[in-house]
Structure formats: C-alpha cells, structure tokens
C-alpha cells in the first residue's frame, strides 16, 4: 500500500502543478481573445477537435485496453518488448493517418461542431483548425508512451510533462498580447500571423510534452524498434475489446457535439463554447488532483488482481479507492461551489460577466463526485477485459445528455444556456454512476456498500457547515460588490484578486470541513493524512 501512496502523491503533486499552470494558461488565453466573444468560441471549437480525437485514443483504446494487455505482456520472457514494439509501430501509423484525414476534413469538422456560427466565425475557426489539428499526432504519441509508463509503474512523467506544454503556451500567448493587444473579441482583423502565433503555440506545447516523455523511457527497461510484423500482436482480441470502448467514446463525442452545437447559439455576448471549456478546466482541478492521481495507481493494482482472478482484492481496492477519493472530492467541490463567483472572475472581463458565468461552474460541480467515482468503477470493468458493459451504461448517460441539452436549447434563455447544458450533463452523470456501481456490485458480489455509504454520509454532513462557512466568508468579503470580484479598473489586477478571493473562501470551507470530520472521527482521515505526508520534503 505504501507504493500506492507514493505513486498517488507523485501523481497528485504533478497533477496539481500541471492543473495550476493549465489554469494560468487558460487565463492568459482568454485575456488574449476574450471569454465572451466569437473569436474565442472559434478557437475553442478548433482546439477542441484534436482533444476529441485524443479522448477517443486515450479513453477508448489505451486506458481501457492497452494497459491490461501490457500488464499481461510483461509476463513474457522478453518483458513485453516485442509486443510493445509492434504496438508503437501500429500506433504511430494510426496517429499519422488520423492527423492527415482530419486536416483534409477540417472545414467540414468545423461546420459540424459550429453549425450556429456565422460564416466569418466558421472561416476563422477553420484557419485555427489547420494549425491545431497536428496536435492529434503528438497527443497520440504522448498517450501511448504515457500509458505504457503507467503500466510499467513509472507514474510521474505522464503527469509532469504537460507542465512544459503549459509554460510554452503561456509564453506564446503573452507574446501574442504584447504584439497584438488583449481582448481581441471581434472576428474582423485577424491576420494569418495572429492565427499562426495563437494556434501554433498551442500545437508546439503538445509536441514538446510528447517529446519529454521519451527521456523517461529507459526506466521501463524496454528497447523499442520499428516492427511492421503485426501478426501475433493480438489485434483481433484487442479489436474486440477496443470496439466497445471505441463505440462508447464515439457516443460520448456525439453528446459533446450536441452540447457544442446547442450552446453555439449563445456565442457573442453570453457564456458559450470557450467559457464552458474554461469552467470545465476549473471543475477538473479536484477531479484530476484527487480522482486521477489516486485512481491511476489503484487501476494498475486492480488490473494485476483481476488478471489473477482475485475478486476479493478487487472489491477491497475499489471500495477503498472510492472512499478516499470521495473524502477529497466532496471537500474541494463544496469549496469551489461557494467560491464560484470569484473563481469565474479569473476568466471574465467584469464582475457582471462573473455573476453571469458562475452558474456554469456550479452546475458542473453537481456532477463532480459521480464523475470521480465513475473513474475507478469504469476501470474495474476494464481490468477484467469487459468493455461492453461500460458501453451500455455510457449509452444511458449519452441519451440523457442529448435529451437534456435539446430541452435546454429550447427553453433556457441565451444568458443561462451554458449553465443549463452543464446541469444536464451533471444529472446524466449521476444516473450513469449509480447504474455502473450497481452492475459492478452484482458482478463482484459486493463493494462494501454499507461502509461506503456511511463514509459518504459523514462527508456530506461535514460539507454542509463547510458550505455555510465558505458562503459566510464570501458575504463578509463583499460578495459581488467586494474586492474578490475586482473593481480596480485593471482587468489583470481584478483577475488576480478573483484568484485570491477564491483561495480565501475555499480555505475557510476546507478548514471547517476537516474540523467537522475530526469531530466525527472519520477513519478515512488517517488514510488521507498518510497520503498527504508523501508530499512533504524528504518523503
């Protein structure tokens, strides 16, 4: 268990730094192009295209299928070298082909994701897309190398490499602001040089993060070579497994397309595509820091236990992981919710925009805990080579997202359309997670549900006074009229004050949360404390 603690701490530290620098990256990006405006939404769609493909590659194939296969290949006499060489050769060919096809189809892809865009906005998005789509190739290599490192228990580099990407992007976006000014939220006036600098910077950062992983490869003890003899790599078996996850992720992409197409109607003066991406980034902070950093090492262990048919150990792994993740996610989620206004002020140009945008973040946070629990539950199915069942319960989520997004598009006013779509996604996630846990419980013959529900009850009880304390801090600091949303006249200073206000309110909420858990003598605090100690120098 100590090795899992060290791995989780390493991933948590890397994820924290990565997400914070990613947050700064988004702040600088939105300072350059504006958080409410057609150019920002055009860039948001263009830059999301390679991310969509990356999601298909990582979640649909690598995480679900490749890690368990690499773990099994490690038992071969050569430690899996031949299998992984074939795998890398296949992957490189597929990533390159996907990049070429996407670039040829760029105008149609933009029109598909931005049907509500004006013609000049679509033209700008297409220009951005030509510079952004090469990210597909580098994202694919980054995911393949990183997931292989994880399977070989080399956990750190995959998490730390994105920091370099963020630093490169921040520098490039600052250069853009220095050369062309900030808040360029009008479609007219964008030159090829401006487009190349903004979108090219984003692609350069992705290429660098993929290259950096190569320096950690020797720690796997494997030597790679190009191998086009793909017979014997088990493509047919992998294809059967990947087929279901591929369909699952495609279904998720369809839901994402519906959301983007519907919210595009609000583009211009209201929160839309680019701001939903920014709010999602803030939402993902606690998810990434806690769910991914804790769950990823557990997934490797679960895959090992599942390969040996040790169901009792898998049950214990999943239940413990759920309880520890929930402890952190509930506390951080309530802290972000009560600090939503200053948190969104970091991305917006005024206090009025922050008040309009805060509901988007709050509606996303409704689904934070279910999404965190789903991370480990879904991977428990993957560990057994079952990718069909996750496809079925994901269809439930996708259907709900599509229906609720269309209802939001028909009923919600434009200024709250993004929030309504975010709430629909959270509701769909709650239903999906409940269904997934119920199915996994039946399959494993139990998941320590009574003990887990008792833990969740403790966390909820602690979250209530924590939320009131944070809200009280928000009111004492002046709420929407206070310094925490910035009224200095300097947009840069106001964003900094928003970040400080978020930290103060969040800290008050977290302190109260921990105090109440101590009073309740929550046993999960001991495991959490041991894990946090791993972050200390010398540990």
TrEMBL record:
Any stretches that span the bilayer, and where are they? Answer: 7-33, 53-75, 87-111, 123-145, 157-181, 193-217, 238-258, 278-300, 321-343, 355-377, 389-411, 417-440, 452-476, 496-520
GO BP annotations, alphabetical order: lipid translocation; peptidoglycan biosynthetic process; regulation of cell shape
Q: Which GO terms describe its cellular component?
A: plasma membrane
| Topology within the bilayer | Multi-pass membrane protein
Q: Return one GO MF term.
A: lipid-linked peptidoglycan transporter activity
Where, per UniProt, does this protein localize? Answer: Cell membrane
**The entry's keywords:** Cell membrane, Cell shape, Membrane, Peptidoglycan synthesis, Transmembrane, Transmembrane helix
Q: Does the keyword Transmembrane helix apply?
A: yes
Q: What is this protein's record name? A: Putative peptidoglycan biosynthesis protein MviN
């Amino acid at each position: 268990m100590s090795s899992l603690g060290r791995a989780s701490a390493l991933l948590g530290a890397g994820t924290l730094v990565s997400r914070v620098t990613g947050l700064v990256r988004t702040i600088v990006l939105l300072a350059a192009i504006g958080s409410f405006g057609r150019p920002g939404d055009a860039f948001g769609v263009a830059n999301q295209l390679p991310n969509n493909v990356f999601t298909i590659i990582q979640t649909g194939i690598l995480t679900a299928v490749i890690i368990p296969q690499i773990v099994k290949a490690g038992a071969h006499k050569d430690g899996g070298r031949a299998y992984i060489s074939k795998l890398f050769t296949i992957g490189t060919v597929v990533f390159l082909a996907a990049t070429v096809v996407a670039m040829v189809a760029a105008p149609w892809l933009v029109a598909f994701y931005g049907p509500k865009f004006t013609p000049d906005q679509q033209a700008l998005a297409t220009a951005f897309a030509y510079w952004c789509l090469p990210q597909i190739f580098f994202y694919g290599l980054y995911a393949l190398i990183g997931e292989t490192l994880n399977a070989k228990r080399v956990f750190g580099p995959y998490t730390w490499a994105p920091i370099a990407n963020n630093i490169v992007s921040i520098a490039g976006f600052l250069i853009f602001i220095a050369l062309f000014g900030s808040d360029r939220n009008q479609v007219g006036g964008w030159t090829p040089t401006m487009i190349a600098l903004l979108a090219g910077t984003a692609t350069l950062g992705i290429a660098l993060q993929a290259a950096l992983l190569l320096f950690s490869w020797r720690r796997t003890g494997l030597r790679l070579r190009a191998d086009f003899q793909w017979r014997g790599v088990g493509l047919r078996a992998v294809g059967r497994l990947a087929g279901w996850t591929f369909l699952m992720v495609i279904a998720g992409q369809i839901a994402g397309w519906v959301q983007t197409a519907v919210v595009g109607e609000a583009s211009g003066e209201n929160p839309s595509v680019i701001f939903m991406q920014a709010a999602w980034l803030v939402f993902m902070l606690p998810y990434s820091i806690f769910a991914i950093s804790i769950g990823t090492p557990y997934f490797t262990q679960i895959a090992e236990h599942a390969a040996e048919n040790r169901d009792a150990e898998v049950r214990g792994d999943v239940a413990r992981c759920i309880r520890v993740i929930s402890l952190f996610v509930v506390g951080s989620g309530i802290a972000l919710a009560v600090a939503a206004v200053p948190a969104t002020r970091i991305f917006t140009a005024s206090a009025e925009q922050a008040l309009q945008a805060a509901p988007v973040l709050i509606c996303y946070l409704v689904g934070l805990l279910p999404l965190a629990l789903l991370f480990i539950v879904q991977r428990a199915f993957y560990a057994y080579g079952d990718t069909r069942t996750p496809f079925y319960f994901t269809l439930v989520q996708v259907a709900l997202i599509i229906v609720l997004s269309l209802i939001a598009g028909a009923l919600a006013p434009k200024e709250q359309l993004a929030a309504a779509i975010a709430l629909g996604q959270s509701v769909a996630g709650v239903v999906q997670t409940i269904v997934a846990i119920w199915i996994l419980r039946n399959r494993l013959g139990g998941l320590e549900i009574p003990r887990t529900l008792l833990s969740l009850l403790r966390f909820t009880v602690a979250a209530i006074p924590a939320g009131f304390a944070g809200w009280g801090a928000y009111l004492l600091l002046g709420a929407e009229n206070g310094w925490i949303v910035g009224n200095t006249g300097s947009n840069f200073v106001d964003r900094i004050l928003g970040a400080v206000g978020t930290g103060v309110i969040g800290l008050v909420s977290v302190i109260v949360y921990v105090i109440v858990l101590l009073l309740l003598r929550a046993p999960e605090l001991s495991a959490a404390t041991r894990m946090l100690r791993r972050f200390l120098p010398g540990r």
